[in-house]
Task: structure prediction
Amino acid sequence: MKTLKLIAVGVILLVSSSIHAQISVNVNIGTPPAWGPVGYANVEYYYLPDVQAYYDIHATQFIYFGGGKWIRSRHLPGQYRNYDLYNGYKVVLNDYHGSRPYSHYHEHKKKYYKGYKGKPQKNYRDSHHDYNDHDDHDHDNHKGNGHGKGNNGNGNGNGKGNGNGKH
Result:
């Protein structure tokens, strides 16, 4: 009887540990990047008109044309390494679910030309890099001291923020 109880307890512990192992594994594949536009949970690709490239959300890779072929990379090509993904416009390709969004590249390039701006977008998170005190950026979540560039340029205008000086 004791042996039977020990075997039963052992089986229960074994099953519960395997269930726990299955539940505790949580992989964030397909999570939109911090610079991605909010509100598109089931999308697979963005098209970036300014750099004429795609971003594969699931693979976390950029797709761009170079050397006569389409390349997948974790980074943009060298000439666009300093491109500001937070401020650049992202076209959400919610109507494409294949593995080669570039099969529609000529249509995308024509419809979403360099400099294209559609409806305003809000990113998942604001950029964490320095803006070098440029006044031409509009970021909804920055916190400042309440002093922005005013209409008269003297620095006492209607800035955004709650007064704690954090960025």
Observations:
- Residues 18-28, 129-167 have pLDDT under 50 and may be disordered.
- Strands lie at 45-48, 53-56, 61-66, 69-73, 91-92.
- Residues 48 and 90 are 5 Å apart (CA to CA).
